[in-house]
Amino acid sequence: MARFLLIHGSCHGAWCWRDVIPLLHARGHDVSAIDLPSHGADTTPYQDVTLEDYADAILAAMDHDTLLVGHSMAGYAITAAAEKAPDKIARLVYLCAYVPQSGKSLVDMRMSAPRQPLLHAIEKTADGRGFTIKPDAATGVFYQDCPQDSAIFAKENLCAEAIAPQTTPLTLTPRSQDLPRSYIHCADDQTIPPEYQLTMTGDWPRADVHHMTCGHSPFFAAPDTLAALLDQISEG
Q1: Which residues are in coiled coils (predicted)?
Q2: I need a labelling partner for 231 at 20 to 30 A (CA). Which of 7, 46, 69, 86 fits?
Q3: pLDDT of residue 236
């Protein structure tokens, strides 16, 4: 039995793991998911949120020996948490996520990609301190291969995303970099280019890079496959 904490990506919440949590429970694992500050049921204004707030929220929800799974932008959040308390973490799992480079922000990483498939779907908030996903673009970038009811459910729950955490550089040390790490590459991702996912993990041991054939939301598109893969990773 492993202990999982699942962390959502931009504009999402703990709700995105609704199909995966029971599947991991059925495999005997202890699993939970949280809303990061300003997401889901958390009422923190997005204007007040920092990357450190994300890390602190994750650590507050964790026990020791946790497999910390971060989707998309949460690659930064879980790495920031690992820098603060690596002793709590058994393994970092990046699910079609940004793998931070020291001294770079998530925005820096995004703009270093060979193409920018998400930019057309983003709309800044009036105050310029957050962004939302345009409703008519959400399916194409996030849910193109998901069941229709899941895509509808997701689009009804999307929220504004704070920009400040994504423009904050992260300095990496052995505290996070020496932890066991796994990556789940999604070959039909329309948000983070699949080829860029492979670039970010180019120097990782091949055994630590896993592959799914779906888009950016495997928790809806292929929850059984994702749960089985997480179960496999937990045994490694």
Answers
A1: none
A2: 86
A3: 80
**Assigned architecture for domain 3-234:** 3-Layer(aba) Sandwich (3.40)
For 138-153, letters b (16+ CB in 10 Å) and e give bbebbbbbbeeebbeb
Task: Compute mean pLDDT per 10 residues along the chain, 236 residues long, and list them.
Answer: 97 98 98 98 98 98 96 99 98 98 98 96 98 97 98 98 98 98 98 98 97 98 98 94
C-alpha to C-alpha distance for 136 and 206, rounded to whole angstroms: 37
pTM here is 0.98
| Nearest one of 21, 202, 5 to 99, comparing CA atoms | 202
How many angstroms separate the Cα of 236 from the Cα of each of 64, 182, 207?
17, 10, 10
